[in-house]
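Shape is hard to put into words, and the shape of a protein is harder than most. The fold becomes a row of whole numbers, each drawn from a learned catalogue of backbone shapes. The outcome of that step, for a single protein, is printed below.
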Amino acid sequence: MKNPNAVPPHPIRADNKTREACWDLPADPEAVGKARGLAHEVLTAWDMSSVAENVTMVVSELVSNAILHGKAPITLALFQYGRVVRGEVTDHSAGWPNPVPAGPEGEHGRGLAIVTAYADRWGVVPASEGKPADGKTVWFVCAEWRSR
């Protein structure tokens, strides 16, 4: 599964309603549930419940991947641009997401397929100053019209 969205989209400003929330997460499996809860809570506060299921599913997969394959610290950020939510999960591992085939009984290999199914777009960029050795940010976009 090759990701055709290697370049993040420019922020979408539909109505000057721009909001953001950011959290540092521990590299602990319990952080996945915490990240889902934080995302759902902030989306409800932003009146973006219509995309909450999609966003929380993608957040769950990306935070899980950061814990399993990345390197702490891990940061989750959500941004609202009008009726669009952009999410970012950053870790400090030089390794980028690499889809692996999932067997019928396998526990791994479905995460990026789930991200593709629930996000309108997603991609990966170096975490800072274009240096992959500093880590990466996996970003995604979920728009309200997709959730209807």
Notes: Confidence is low (pLDDT under 50) at residues 1-15. DSSP finds three helices and five strands in the chain. The helical segments are 30-45, 52-69, 111-118. Residues 52-69 form the longest helix (18 residues).
